[in-house]
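Hello again,

I reread your note about wanting to compare the complex against the isolated chains. To keep things tidy I'm splitting this into two emails, and this first one only covers the full assembly. Below are the input lines as submitted, including protein chains and any nucleic acid or small-molecule components. They are followed by the predicted structure of everything together. The single-chain runs will come separately.
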Amino acid sequence: MSDRFTAEKVGRTTLDYTLLGFMTLLVGLGLSTLFSASYYVASEHFNDPLRLFYRQLVWVAAGLAAALGLSRVSMAALRKAIPGIVLAALGLMLLTFVPGLSLEALGARRWISLFGLTFQPSELVKLALIVYLAHYLDKKHDRLRRFGTGVLPALLIALAFIALVYLQNDFPTAFFILFLTLALLFVGGVRILHFASLALALLPLSGLLMFAREHRVARFLAFWNPDSDPLGRGYQIAASQAALGHGGFWGAGFGRGSEKLGWLPEVHSDFVFAVLGEEAGLVGVLFVLALFLCFAVKGYVIGMASKDRFGYYLAFGITTSILFQGLFNVAVVSGLVPATGIPLPFFSSGGSSILVTLASCGLLMNLSRRAGDRAGNHE
Amino acid sequence: MVERKDLVRFGVFAAFIAVLVVLVLWKYVSVMVIAPVTDPLQASGPVVERGPILDRNGKLLAVETRQDSVTAWIPDVVDKADDARLLSGVLAIPKQELLSTLSSHTGFVFIKRQISQSESKQIQALKEAGKLAGIELRPDYGRIYTEGDLAGHVIGYVGTDNTGLDGIELTFNNQLSPPPPKSTAAGGDFFGNQVFLTIDQNIQYFAQSLASKVFQDSEADSVILIVMGAKSGDILAYVSCPEFDPNTFSKFPAAVRQDRANSYIYEPGSVMKIFTISSFLELGGITPETEFYDDGTYEHALPDGDVIRIKGLAPHEWEDAQLIIKFSSNVGAAYASDTVSDSALYQMLKAFGFGSPTFVPLPGEASGILRPISEWTPRSKPTISFGQEIGVTAIQVAAAATALTNDGILLKPHIVEKVVGPDGRLIQSFPREPIRRVISSEIAHEMLGFMETGTDPDGFAHDAKVPGMPTSAKTGTAQMLDPQTGRYSETAYTGSCIAIFPTDDPQVIVYAVVINPKKGPYWGSGVASPLIRQVSERLISYLGIPKEGDQVVSASPPRAGARAPLSLSTTLPDLTGLSKRELLPLFADRDLNVRVSGSGWVVSQTPPPGTPLTKGMTVSVVLQ
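Full-complex prediction:
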């Protein structure tokens, strides 16, 4: 069972309807929540209440096209393209430092702007790194127990990406990518000793880097004691919690939230879940969290059913990425962890995030179909 | 391909996720259901647009505005110096001040609240140009008092968080800005109720202007002026000079913002006689025929041999109740008080409302000082009978006078006419509210008659009378207590005057108090009576009260008066006050569409007066 044979089997059209169902529900709920959350912000900033919603629709369409493409691509072809993908991601990251192309917003250089479209390459980095690591862990599976030749090369590539993201002044994403790398290495089978020393070395280092910038310290302090200065540092968290508190068990009703009316900064992007909480209540929160968990279980099952390690690691990486961004984001919205800039997949306004999330789902569909092949077409 | 070893690793990872999920779930349950928090800036939930305050004719006195406030979220601010430079140009705040604001905070901070629209636009333009990272505009509701200092003490003002701090803004805060019901539909904005005052903006305007003039000319500490509907108890004008402008209330010292009409306690002096003499008549101690001999000094021998002596201004010889009022005889009033007991007088004064608040819904009302009879000395009763040893507020005196104008029945004074919902639905109204009978109808009419003789050419209050208008009036002058010595001051006086007209069928009560005038006459008839006359003159023409010798044409609208026939030129005239009949013929031959709603007299029109007339133009008028 080599890559050559699997490559030829891509042609069957069995669709994973369960996965598709979860995806559809998440995209639909995400769009409707964003609609409710963004119309006030959009009418204030653009004098057009539907501006952000329409923009998101365009990106969803692009994401679905990407998903369709990736669900049909040959895995062998994908693996062959990995060096190109990694180089492209690196190139795009470097472009954010080119003054003419980069777009600075809210003090961070995370976007590149071309022909009026903005894109956040760090979102692509998440997927590129997953694909790369899945490939690497599969290829070097037998050598992973050695640090120098096994773990280190992959780690260096990952750290290069992380460093670039950090230099974009995007600490949360950098931290998230580090976390994702460690999770893949752990599941990939590196020695516990290596894993533990890596975690022990890198996590304090990231703590140190966090305190290198004043605003992160402020966010962090605000997290620990938001009530000390309710109009100041803790305001965003407090407003978000107030939205959730207002929602209560059953919610205020769709469209009837009030914190989104200019009270909660970044309500359409990082804090969109607060609107869902306010309008759909705890019931809605539980439903969406359950949906994310079902999606994750499905993703992990696809990985387990995969007939090679590459498929397993790829499915694991993609699923973990989406699940963890989701958990991170909802934890921030509820005030469980300090405010970060991690979007809520499927929900947050932001083209790069939804495009990459849907493209990742396309890869999951692809893997699922292959797993289906094996089940139905025993070799 | 996935091996057992892999499954163990995955299991550990899954357990880690499970812990995270449980933590998140626990947090959500606690934040949303167990201990919900409220927004520090928006505790009441949805945004409520505060309702307007209007005068009795629907003229706007306080309206809501929506302006932006400039805020900063410091963590997102990139270049403080640049932001300070740019904002300084727009907001006219020194750069250094802005820089220190941005530097001294670490999180959320208001930079300037309620900026103008053009400032908002400039900041928006800067933001669209990619500047001002971390600076945000956020909507903030503000309040504009359209008539400036007009009735400022009645309206009050709101704080920057738009809750009422004084006046009707405070006492009707829950009506103007009701907490939105949690379950109500139409998420988003809610609208507060409209509060209609009994104040008439026009009456308030001339009352306030005339009182301010006296305030300045006499260099008084304060001038209080109240105009009240005699039959309704509605307060039509409510003046407490010095005035303040609620738009910029913080620039005025607290003493200026104080509503003296309901909180300043003073000795009323002889104005009090209209209530004490009425009481003696009601109690049967005297009749209108009872006469006392005034040789210039009241003398009363006590059982222990002491003699109380009270000197009057001049001897009046034999005088009855009417002459006591007409010449304001302290000696006569004191002798009359001997005919009743302490407790009887006390009960009567209580019944007139002295010693208790009137409960006009304005903050800080004082009860005045009416000491219990256990604290009275033998001197108290005769002294109180001419308005000393008793502390009153101006609103108490005006309210007590309603007993004279309503056949002996005391009314509760009103300053709010009605509360109307945002949809026009009447929520609460405050019609005429009788409290109790204080004196008989006959005595009330008799007293008005006695007071009318006070405005005869030889009466003490003749300066208060508008020629041709039968007016019942009474003046008062009281020495003020010197806070240094605790004794009556030789130089500080309170001059006051009350007028009720027309005597036969009273329409208005006007009461003026001039506190410590330092220039010109200090006595009531000298300083307060002319003010009363000037206000009365304007009232008579504004309300259309017929004078003696006027030709009464018809029972025309209360404010139409003598008005020149309407003629159309090139612009739309002011139609307010016209009847439907006056209105329609004028438009019949013109190419205008007239839409009329309601009945009565025109209270509002669209477009406003002065709009150029064009063919086919639609003119809407509302009648009430």
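For quick reference: Chain A touches chain B through 72 residues (CB under 8 Å).

B.
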